[in-house]
Amino acid sequence: MTNHQFTLPDGFLFGASTSAHQTEGNNVNADWWAFEHRSETVVHETSGDAADSYHRWREDMDLLADLGFNAYRFSVEWARIEPAPGQVSQSALAHYRRMLQGAHDRGLEPVVTLHHFTSPRWFAERGGWTAPDAAEAFTRYTEAVAPVLDGLATHVATINEPNMLALIHTALRQGGVPADLHHLEPDEQITTAMIEAHHAAKATLHSAQPGLRVGWTVANQVFQAEPGAEDACRAHAWPREDCFLEAARGDDWIGVQAYTRTRVGPDGPLPIPDAAERTLTGWEYYPEALGEAVRHTAEVTGGQVPVLVTENGIATSDDQRRVDYTTAALTGLAQAMRDGIDVRGYLHWSALDNYEWGSYAPTFGLIAVDRDTFARTPKPSAHWLGSLARSGRLPG
């Protein structure tokens, strides 16, 4: 029996993902840049030049297209587009318009994210998502971006992982961002503000560009209840994931972002078993997370919202382990699709080794990036995954 048994539907988006702050470099007007450079910062490394993708995006897209992919998810940077309140940079808008056109010229379907963790400094200084006009400010930014998308983008994500943003805000209030956020309580005010902003931005985009398919992406934690802890697990999952999935009912699509699992006992999240293999981020090696996350997302959204896998991958220095992990993850995805779940695409995290919010050590990329010369080198896993994209089939 061949290892490639599941034939993908026509139009399936198969590619890789990045974000602006993690790859562009020198995003000096962003709140994360300010956070990195505070005297009391807890980050190990600053983002600096990152992968210099602000200037080298053509090379990045050339590589992805040559590898065999047909889609590329990237973000536009609010801090570049609106460096001061109400001041829109036409130069920045033109830059991202060129990127969208460049993707099309190379046969890559762009999947555009409007907010991938970073905000303008001025927005953060006014209280960020806790400010009374936060949703209004985000909607104004969305209105500025909408014309750039005209005719060149089909799928747009408003906010990346709002559930993680709500947890990170709590962590920052407490002095830092711990490796494990699951024991923290997400900020309810921020949760409410981001849901409001998402719905307002979606309405704005639909009004400006009726053909756009708008959704948002959620960090799926794959909460697994230990025997007898089912109620505790549901209660734990609701404010950290499920309320954000519930808010996506009626969206054009929902982004699934899955890497590992979280086991939950009667008193909350449990530690990773001592014998478990860990990735460079310290997460448990658990490729089954993807199939389980897709199924859970479909269940919570009522099965009526098409799924895009907008992130899935592994931080490892062993590229064969990346192939192993992704093979198992895609096998689970294929089975979910066989069972009738409407999955429209798979976008691997990440296209490039990049800045992982405080350190360059966790290497998620299909393509290695030399930190000094910025030379790009596709890894064997990139060629392997690209061959699957070309074949239109998934393992399993």
TrEMBL record:
Coiled coil: none annotated. GO terms for biological process: carbohydrate catabolic process. The keyword Hydrolase applies. The keyword Transmembrane helix does not apply. It holds the Pfam family Glyco_hydro_1. One of its GO terms (molecular function) is beta-glucosidase activity. GO terms for cellular component: cytosol. Keywords: Glycosidase, Hydrolase. InterPro entries: GH, Glyco_hydro_1. Belongs to the glycosyl hydrolase 1 family. This is Family 1 glycosylhydrolase. It comes from Streptacidiphilus fuscans.
